[in-house]
């Protein structure tokens, strides 16, 4: 792995450990633009690396008793089904080339532009909403609403290879009034489930893996995640959320500029 790629992998792991999100949505751009992985394969790499790192984090948080397994079940089960169906049956039907009038747009470009759009929308949500860390009680909603949210997260996870933490964390904190520490732990568990089951839909791509690259990236993510767990005690939750939001926003803008104006 390149030095810059290694540094970025570690930093992405830090965001995953501190905020329970941001890891997967930043991993695909790093794999594509820094480590020069094909965008389609990069989404599968992301599912593997983020899934394994989140699984390790989930085991640690399980020992602390900070995971809300009711939310994991209500979010996770519909997400699992949606992710698998999307990777197995929806993406294979996406054409390799889109003909739009005089323009011919490759599938990889469409994938990255869609990815950038999701990043920018997520960034606005993280920047504009504050975390209420002193809720006395969590807000209760029907299981049906949670299931619908889980399906939405699963669809995004399946299409862009992101674990969905950038959607799960705002929902858990702003919608359900869940404390930050509990939201991070619950998010990591849902991300692990989504990513690993999404990977099952791409199992035929394993023979294309550069395992040296994937395992190094995954290892650095895990190291960064544990560093993130440690650093959370020194930062305010709203500061973390806004910093991550701005980072995701600027990466999203970079992707759009790269795909439209900076093509090689």
Automatic annotation (TrEMBL):
<keyword id="KW-1133">Transmembrane helix</keyword>
<keyword id="KW-0812">Transmembrane</keyword>
<feature type="transmembrane region" description="Helical">
    <location>
        <begin position="211"/>
        <end position="231"/>
    </location>
</feature>
<protein>
    <recommendedName>
        <fullName>Probable membrane transporter protein</fullName>
    </recommendedName>
</protein>
<dbReference type="InterPro" id="IPR002781">
    <property type="entry name" value="TM_pro_TauE-like"/>
</dbReference>
<feature type="transmembrane region" description="Helical">
    <location>
        <begin position="147"/>
        <end position="173"/>
    </location>
</feature>
<keyword id="KW-1003">Cell membrane</keyword>
<dbReference type="Pfam" id="PF01925">
    <property type="entry name" value="TauE"/>
</dbReference>
<dbReference type="GO" id="GO:0005886">
    <property type="term" value="C:plasma membrane"/>
</dbReference>
<feature type="transmembrane region" description="Helical">
    <location>
        <begin position="243"/>
        <end position="262"/>
    </location>
</feature>
<feature type="transmembrane region" description="Helical">
    <location>
        <begin position="110"/>
        <end position="127"/>
    </location>
</feature>
<comment type="similarity">
    <text>Belongs to the 4-toluene sulfonate uptake permease (TSUP) (TC 2.A.102) family.</text>
</comment>
<feature type="transmembrane region" description="Helical">
    <location>
        <begin position="7"/>
        <end position="35"/>
    </location>
</feature>
<dbReference type="InterPro" id="IPR051598">
    <property type="entry name" value="TSUP/Inactive_protease-like"/>
</dbReference>
<feature type="transmembrane region" description="Helical">
    <location>
        <begin position="72"/>
        <end position="90"/>
    </location>
</feature>
<feature type="transmembrane region" description="Helical">
    <location>
        <begin position="41"/>
        <end position="60"/>
    </location>
</feature>
<keyword id="KW-0472">Membrane</keyword>
């Amino acid at each position: 792995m390149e030095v810059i790629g290694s540094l970025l992998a570690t930093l992405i792991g830090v965001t995953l450990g501190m905020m329970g999100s941001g890891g997967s949505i930043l991993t695909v751009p790093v794999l594509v633009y820094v480590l020069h992985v094909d965008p389609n394969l990069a989404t599968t790499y992301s599912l593997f690396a983020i899934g394994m790192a989140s699984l390790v984090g989930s085991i640690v948080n399980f020992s602390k008793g900070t995971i809300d397994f009711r939310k994991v079940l209500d979010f996770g089960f519909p997400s699992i089904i949606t992710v698998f169906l999307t990777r197995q049956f929806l993406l294979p039907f996406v054409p390799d080339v889109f003909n739009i009038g005089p323009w011919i747009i490759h599938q990889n470009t469409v994938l990255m532009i869609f990815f950038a759009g999701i990043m920018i929308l997520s960034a606005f949500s993280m920047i504009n909403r504050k975390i209420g860390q002193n809720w006395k009680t969590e807000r209760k909603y029907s299981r049906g609403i949670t299931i619908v949210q889980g399906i939405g997260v699963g669809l995004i996870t399946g299409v862009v290879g992101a674990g969905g933490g950038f959607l799960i964390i705002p929902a858990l904190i702003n919608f359900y009034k869940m404390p930050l520490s509990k939201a991070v732990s619950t998010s990591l568990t849902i991300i692990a489930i989504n990513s690993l089951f999404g990977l099952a839909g791409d199992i035929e791509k394993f023979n294309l893996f550069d395992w040296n690259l994937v395992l190094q990236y995954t290892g650095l993510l895990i190291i960064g995640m544990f560093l993130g767990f440690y650093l959370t005690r020194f930062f305010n939750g709203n500061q973390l959320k806004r910093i991550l939001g701005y980072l995701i926003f600027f990466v999203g803008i970079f992707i759009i500029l790269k795909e439209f104006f900076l093509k090689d």
